[in-house]
Amino acid sequence: MSRHWRQCGSVLLVILACGAAQAADKPIQVFVNSQRQTFHPPALARNGKAYLPMRPFASAIMGGLAYDAGTGTVRISYCSKTAKLKKSQGITVNGSFYVPLRTVADALAIPITWNPRTASVNINLGSAGG
Q1: What is the DSSP letter of 125?
Q2: Which of 100, 123, 128 is closest to 32 using CA atoms?
Q3: Do residues 77 and 99 make contact, with C-beta atoms less than 8 angstroms apart?
Q4: Is 91 exposed, middle or buried (0-12, 13-18, 19+ CB in 10 A)?
Q5: CB atoms within 10 A of CB 30
Q6: Cβ contact 85:77 at 8 Å
Q7: Hey, how many other C-beta atoms are within 10 angstroms of the C-beta on 89?
Q8: What digits encode the pLDDT tens for the residues 41-68?
């Protein structure tokens, strides 16, 4: 009986470890107009979504950035468009706030392309409508 419980426990640990590995953040590469960007902290993918650190992302697109701590609202602007996000829509990793790239890019009308083979995203400002 004791051996059986040890085996069950071992199987459970393997299952939990696999689940934790799947949910782990994965680094991704970011390009703006095909030029590689280095973000500090780095961009990442979590649960199939790309997240970019808020301040480096706004800087990379030369956009405006405002945060209202009272309402927990982030505003990123580019050309004549503004993406407004509640902080609950993003994630915080090691004290840095990350925005969901697809949500912000769609709100700002900025085309993005994802390359799963290289785990990279290209933000195409040349095609952004303003």
Answers
A1: G
A2: 123
A3: no
A4: middle
A5: 23
A6: no
A7: 15
A8: 999 999 999 999 999 999 999 999 999 9
Question: What count of residues does the chain have?
Answer: 130
Token pair of 99 as six digits: 């925005």
Residues 6+ apart with CB under 8 A from 100: 49, 50, 51, 85, 89, 90
For residue 66, what are the β-bridge partners? Answer: 75
Beta-carbon count within 10 A of 92 CB: 10
Examine the pLDDT at 20 and tell me if it is beyond 70.
Answer: no
Q: Which of 128, 21, 114 is nearest to 76 (CA)?
A: 128
Residue type at 90 in one-letter notation: G
Instruction: Looking at 1-130, list the stretches that DSSP marks H as alpha helix, in order from N- to C-terminal side.
Output: 2-23, 54-60, 101-108
The answer to whether 74 and 85 have CB atoms below 8 angstroms apart is yes
